[in-house]
Amino acid sequence: MSRLNSPSTSCNPPTMKALMSRFLRSPALATIPIPQPERGELQLEVAYVSLNPTDYKHAFMALPPSKVIGCDFSGRVTALGSEVDRSSFAEGDRVAGVIHGCHYSHAGAFAQYLVADANMCYRVPDSIPLEQACTVGVGWISAMQALHQRLYCGYQDDSGKEDTSRIERPDTFIVALASKQHHANLRKLGADVVFDYRSPSIVQDVRALGRDVRKAIDCHSEGSSTVLAAQCMLSSDQPESTPPKGGRRIIRTLPPRMISGTIPPGVQANEWILSYTALGKPFWFLFKHYPASSEDYNAAKRYLKNLTPLLEKGELVPVNHRLMAGGLGDIGNGFKEMAAGKVRGEKLVYRVAGGK
Fold first, then answer.
1. In DSSP terms, which residues pair with 116 in a beta bridge?
2. Which long-range contacts (CB under 8 A, 24 or more apart) does 264-269 make?
3. Are 277 and 290 in contact (CB under 8 A)?
4. Is the pLDDT of residue 214 over 90?
5. d(Cα 47, Cα 43) in Å, to the nearest integer?
């Protein structure tokens, strides 16, 4: 650890490689100082990173420039800030977490080292390889924001407070729309019925179930996906004479202004989640300013804290992933696959340093 503490006393602080955004150009590796942890932060040597759609979209837009890209990471703790709870983390711990990629010039996931809010990290159980652990963070926060904070599909403890320390099958009938190659996995994960969203009879097939569909999450949220989901939630093309109490709601992962098509009457699709709000800091997204949200931050702290026991018990399963060839300098190849629509039902993972 002494080599990483040396920047505070050295005139030539140690450096690292990081993948950074560039103005009107593709991202590229740059050499920058190894960041040092502030009071509530952990410093990690990054072992693996996984790619999210937001990563390649920011990289291709080249906005903002000169920022370290990447949100999902795993690695080992190399230093702790002065206010980090030593009962929660220690040097050498296997840790994974989330950071706001393309937001800071000194830190991001796609780097040899990073500093991150300790509350946005969790200890990785010995039974989970770091290669898998790096795929969990952003997806877990997004799912909990949608299910617990927006659709209220979670559980409560005896005091009435939200309880995300356990995952059980809710008393809910789950309908999934996905490509055929993902149907078996979705059934394994708990979907009651699965339909091919490309089927010309998809709307009629879902309606034929005779289910009163009240809540939905559009994980794709591009093109006409939300319109299709809304049509499947209604029993017919005719407006409902008596809409159900609470209405029919779809939670999106992108702003409603990006919906292609017209949402049928009786379905609300104006709500969306943005996992960056979980990080507790103000930010800009799609040219709009978002203030810090203490509610989302405190909720995310609970979500991430509970990840360790959930993974240990096997109650939460990391998503499928594909380990890509190369390291930080090859992440651009993964971006190209994602932009071309070649990544489906899995996350791309790159190895940065050693460690299991």
1. 42
2. 264/227, 264/230, 264/231, 264/234, 264/237, 264/239, 265/239, 265/240, 266/234, 266/239, 266/240, 267/230, 267/233, 267/234, 269/218, 269/226, 269/230
3. yes
4. yes
5. 13
Residue for token pair 């002065």:
82
Q: For residues 131 and 48, is the Cβ–Cβ distance under 8 A?
A: yes
Q: Mind spelling out the 3-state secondary structure of 104-145?
A: CCCCCCCECEEEEEHHHEEECCCCCCHHHHCCCHHHHHHHHH
10 has a pLDDT exceeding 60 = no
List residues bridging with 17 in a β-sheet.
31
* Residue carrying structure tokens 């996984």: 50
CB of 177 closer than 8 Å to CB of 209: no
pLDDT bin (cut points 50, 70, 90) of residue 232 is very high
Q: What average pLDDT does range 312-319 have in this prediction?
A: 92
In a 13 Å sphere around the CA of 249, the CA atoms on its Cβ side amount to 13
pLDDT band at residue 36 using 50, 70 and 90 as cut-offs: very high
Element (H, E) at 346: none
In the 3-class helix/strand/coil scheme, how is 313-343 assigned residue by residue? CCCCCCCCEEECCCCHHHHHHHHHHHHCCCC
What single-letter DSSP state applies at residue 165?
S
pLDDT score of 62: 58
